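Have a close read of the entry that follows and walk me through the local backbone shapes. See right below:
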Amino acid sequence: MPKIESLSTAEETVVEKKPVKTESAELQEYSSHSTVTDVSDLKPKKPKSHNGLRIFMPAFAAIYGVLGSAACSIFIMRNRSLANNIYSNICEIVFIVLTMLFAIRVLPKAFPEMRSYTFKAPHWYTVIALLFAMPLLIILKYRAVYLFATYISHSEVSFEVFTYSAEELKEDLVACGSAILLAPIYEELCFRYIPLSVFKRKIPRIIVCILIGAFFGWLHADNLVAVFIDAIFYAILFLASKNIWNSIAAHSANNLIVTVFAVMSYYGVEIRVQHSKPMILFMSTGWTILFAILAVSGLIIFFLGRKLNQSKKERT
């Protein structure tokens, strides 16, 4: 019988084993085929710097704020009727919406540091504390203005009882909706949020805070020193809380309490004022003590409310 050969030389095939590539070899092969010519190309690109634009933002915001306020006040310059006040309020609402869209949607693309500030509604205990403390803060503010006028500027100070006619009260009550609800939002956006939030470092923020405060006071020429103190207080509150609504709440509380003081004077409460520059407001010692008690009550509510809020967060 013929022998069956298990393996013929003609049909014999040779199986070649493929070499196993190591990780370093794969990286070397990738680098040889890659189009990257420089190691720096692999690094993430830094965002464009807008330092030049950043310097001009406070001036831009201040000018924009003045022009917007002037545009809205056109309706009530000659006649402060209810209809004209409504037109003015509508104009303010339009400017507020446009400014908020610009501050929330557009500016953070150029200045990413603005995203660290929020637009969250203030806590209820913060609003109550500001309302309760504001009467005392107003009294103390005008005491500081009195000291400034007496010992620094050496101005003559003469007081008279503040009188309020029914017509003046009616005009102010018609306009108080804008003064309490709309104007604080627009002014805090233009004179606090945009100028201060575009800066990263403390020193530029301090300088801008003082300059914007002085400009804001100059706009209220009859009440320059008091308004400058207000502007610094609002800025500190905004920067400390990183929430513009806290400074808006303080601004609204200030305007509300001033309106309440006007109503109080109309109904016989004695309030002494100096109408000439600088404007100074004085109330009796009894009212000051009452406002101090109210302010302490507001602080107690604030700390208790904050503690309650923290305990709720810990439970959840």
User: Anything to note?
Assistant: Confidence is low (pLDDT under 50) at residues 1-17, 34-42. The chain has one domain: 51-310. The chain is about 70% helix and 5% strand.
